[in-house]
Amino acid sequence: MLGQISITMQELNLQTLIPMLIPICGGLLILIIDLIKENLHKSFYVMMTILILFVDFGSVLSLVVNDRGFFDVILVDGIAIVTQLLILVTSMLFIPLALTSKRFHEFSYPEFFALFLFMIAGFQFMVTSDNLILIFVGLETASLSLYTLIAMHNRSNSYEAAVKYFTMGAVAAGFFAMGSALIYATTGSVELYAIKDVLGERINEPGLLFVIIGGGILLLVSFAFKISLFPFHTWVPDVYEGASAPLAGYMSIVPKIATFVVALRVFGVYIDLGIEPIRIIIMTLAVLTMTLANIMALVQEDVKRMLAYSSISHAGFVMAALALGTTKGNVGIFVYYALFMFTNLGAFTMLWISRHKKRRYSLRFDHPYEKFAGLIKVIPMGAVVMALFMLSLAGVPPFSVFWGKLYVMSAAVDAGYIWLAIVMGLNSAVAAYYYLKLIVYMFLKEPNRDMNTVYYNISKPLMVIIGIAVIVTVTSVFFFQQLLSYVTYMIDYSVI
Prior knowledge:
Blueprint: H1 9-12, H2 18-36, H3 42-61, E1 67-69, E2 74-76, H4 78-94, H5 110-127, H6 132-151, H7 158-187, H8 192-202, H9 208-227, H10 235-242, H11 245-251, H12 254-272, H13 276-298, H14 303-324, H15 327-351, H16 375-378, H17 380-393, H18 400-414, H19 418-444, H20 460-492
Antiparallel strand pairs: 1-2
Helix pairs in contact: 2-3, 2-5, 3-4, 3-5, 4-5, 4-12, 4-15, 4-20, 5-6, 5-12, 6-7, 7-9, 7-10, 8-12, 9-12, 9-13, 10-14, 11-15, 12-14, 13-14, 13-19, 14-15, 14-18, 14-19, 15-17, 15-18, 15-20, 17-19, 17-20, 18-19
């Protein structure tokens, strides 16, 4: 007769679940309110969503570092806290943009905000666990919500973008499941800390290393789809083009941050055990991604697609930091994205000021370079702001992304990979060309006669969000050291 298992509430430590339960309950509350009272103005749902995110932000700050809960599958370490804060800040910047849209109807649906909150909960589950099953559940929860959010944008190519993203996501899920199955078959556990202990004892067994490397490669392929590493990046430009500009900017940040954290936890095990083939593969993919994405960005005729390839290149840049396997490299991942997210979301949001349901200036593209010709004469402040974002993305000092690039390159040098730092520097120089190309169009070209009536949609919410992004981009030099100190402190209290 089996003995009774006694589990106390203290052992469950349900407090660790609160940050995930808040957006889930918030999403359900929005759906219930819609059932009770239909056709409420979207501003109500926007303010409600922001309030839920603020409460969630506070709950994350109240967590105890290096705590476990809910049968020990929830892990609250420094990485989990920092990542959740980045996700929530980006989300709070994104949601007010719903108030700027009059031509697109997705923001009018309460389901949009409910799905958005469910997506955030999925990402939070991903980053607060070292259990491969819970990571998979969080990944799919977030992904399924995101597919639907893309499809809700009522453009002719939005459904196509959603289907492409869904297809790539399904393939990635398959690789993740197979990789996890191989690792479980050889170690008997899906907990990363237990997997590390088993591999540490049995690493020299014949054939074991081969299977473990195979499992790691399958997981790497899965992450490569989500992070958009070469050669699994081809879906990105089409999906970003089909999504709304702010959502494309959001997709270039939050899903990648969450996936980087999972990759950091998983491949941290391989790197700590000295399994060099995995490190070499990661570093090779990182170099190929940043280089080939930059080359593709050079020949783009659409600003949105250029920014899509730009985000792929930045992902490769950060992936190189992950491959270093040092504390400084790990800190660089979070510092880079903390600075990058404001600039990149701001750049995509600038495309939102010229949105239209039907293409007006090109049969193929929504945002051709010609559309921005002479912008300095049409809307001077808009041209200056977009130029600031482009200079920051190019890594020009003293703007925000420069400090992130400099720190990651210094981490590569400190780890002994001087050649990698040189490759990063050369790629930054190449990227400057296509960023400066847009600045040339805005400041040195004559405006197109048919485009003088396009720049009307500058509402107060959009101005506030872009203003915040500009302030962070320009003033980062004054708070970079404080950001670095906080992230370093939190990473030191992490289980990697």
